[in-house]
């Protein structure tokens, strides 16, 4: 193994030592090493030349985010950046869990890969077969070679259905109740089997070893449990008497890798009567109805009959990465956990599933990894220090039932790093409805809206500093608001904040309407903190010099009533139908002191479910009365407030703008 410094020293020597200039070096010579952001374009030579400033291997979540963030934030030119990926479709994989719960259609979660790539990126629809990092070359499956100055390796990991004997056959069999959310072809079988299942033993598995989103296997289970509960087939309070029994068989010794969330999930498991089979690693399916689990320390494998099984297959590095000089001992791209730079090759970078970064492999992690990689890579191109560092941030929205999610967020070392906990002082280990909306509605929306354009920085919101006018359809956006140096991984110059300003976009000349201020000397323009403006014009009824409405007008004054006119009015009134009865609805019931004591007790016992509205209905009084005699505890009020604030995060730009404008107007009252 070469150390980075040794490799850097040896590389020119190795290049010089070749007697004949190899095809590779001939190609490489076309590339220039101009600093990012300068006007100097890469010399791509004749059309079809295969030399790029940056080559990105993989157009998945990481490949999309990195290539677009590089393109938009650092002014690269046409074909400076190449993306190599053979796939026809790009998938929003986190949505497959929602498909498994019957909440989304899988077709809605994918887009043609090509349609997501900015035309300024060169796309090679091909498989990469190997890397020659000493020669700055990648080799495609057809033998073509592409040279680079900087290489980003983000091809994800492989899902090895074959590693469990009998699994591929069971998944393909439409009659078997074996399914998995871990594949486009299989994820819609999950809900179909859950709906069909009316009784028997259901097993949900999680393998030992690295997988994508370590919480997803149990998300599938919690949703299924909730479905069966609602269908009257499973009673969590009395699981042994239910038609269905549920096993969670995991290769891990605990429910989840982070102690804080694991403890709460273990409580849920026990409360809901789920049988835990810890350190049980599924290795085979026999006879279509028997699961075989390997046990640690040479213990006998366990064979267990099942009627329905949801399987999380084994996963691991792709062979072409594992067998390359870029791999570490386990087969992942061997990068520094702070800088995301390769440990031996200075111009090679990796994040996402394929990397050796010791954190949970999620799309959320990539939102924090991308700005670090982009900063360090472009600093390097500019001959400056790679000064950004990734802290291991990752997140797992654990669906614990329909309507509730526990939002696990943590960094290296399994340390919680909670966005909303820090913002609103709430405990994210408590499953919440607002987090459910994030998972079900907001994340899928923001993924194709901003994430794949490199413009979504997870907890930092639209906090990626992009060049004005750079992202298609968002010309002029700044993508940043209030700075918070403490938040997130340290990327110099990055900012935190969920709100984005579309001020420039709205005021851009092409779309600008006639300015109403030009024609009304009394109109006043008010500025919002985001830079947006709104206009207040005087109400049309207020008096002005030109107005005559306040001056007495003889022709408009009320006529003096005559006796004949009054009699006519009386006749007209008599002809009308009788007046409506006064509202005789009885007022709310008065409660006795015993009832008030009962209300107070109920409120204290379960303040979340015993809301003022529900108790008012039950006791026949008004919600206001309940709020007075038994106010909700402070912590519940704060929790509700936090939920409301969380829901605000799912608002689009227009809704947020309207709210900011309303707040500002209110101050003028
Ligand atoms: C069921 C499921 C649930 C999940 N839930 C969540 C969740 O709730 N939250 C969350 O944040 N994350 C979740 N994830 C994880 C998340 O989807 C991944 O971590 C993320 O997509 C990884 O991105 P990536 O770019 O590293 O890899 P991928 O998105 O897998 O992309 C890899 C790309 O590389 C390409 N490629 C592969 N081989 C080659 C080759 N030889 N040459 C060129 N290109 C190649 C592929 O075609 C692919 O487009 C979930 C994943 C799954 C499967």
TrEMBL record:
GO molecular function annotations of the record: FAD binding; sulfide:quinone oxidoreductase activity
GO cellular component terms listed in the entry, alphabetical order: mitochondrion
InterPro entries on file: FAD/NAD-bd_sf (IPR036188), Sulphide_quinone_reductase (IPR015904)
Source organism (scientific name): Pseudozyma flocculosa
Organism taxonomic ancestry: Eukaryota, Fungi, Dikarya, Basidiomycota, Ustilaginomycotina
Domain of life: Eukaryota
Entries under SUPFAM superfamilies matching the protein: FAD/NAD(P)-binding domain
Region of interest (Disordered), residue spans: 480-541
Swiss-Prot/TrEMBL GO biological process terms: sulfide oxidation, using sulfide:quinone oxidoreductase
Residues that span the membrane, as ranges: none
Protein name: Related to sulfide:quinone oxidoreductase, mitochondrial
Segments of skewed composition (Low complexity): 480-510
